[in-house]
Amino acid sequence: MPKKDFFKESTISEIEEKTLVDKHVDELDSREYAILASILIIPKGYKSARKFMKHGPEVKPRRIYNLEQAVREIRTPVQLREEAFNKIKNSFYCGYTFMPTGKDQRKRKVSLVECLEGARISAYAHQVPGTEIKIKPYDDAKRVRQDGAEIIVDVPSRETKQPRVKFKLTSVPIVDSPEKYLISLGIGSDHSCGSKRFNIRYRFSDDKEGSGIVNICAHEIAGYFAIIDHYINNKKNLVPLQMSQFAIPSQETVDFYLKLGNNVLIKDQILKTKDKLRKPNRAEKEIALWSFVKKLGYDRTFYSKGSRDGNLVDYNWGIKENGL
Question: Torsion-angle region of residue 190: left (phi > 0), alpha (psi -120 to 50) or beta?
Answer without folding.
Answer: alpha
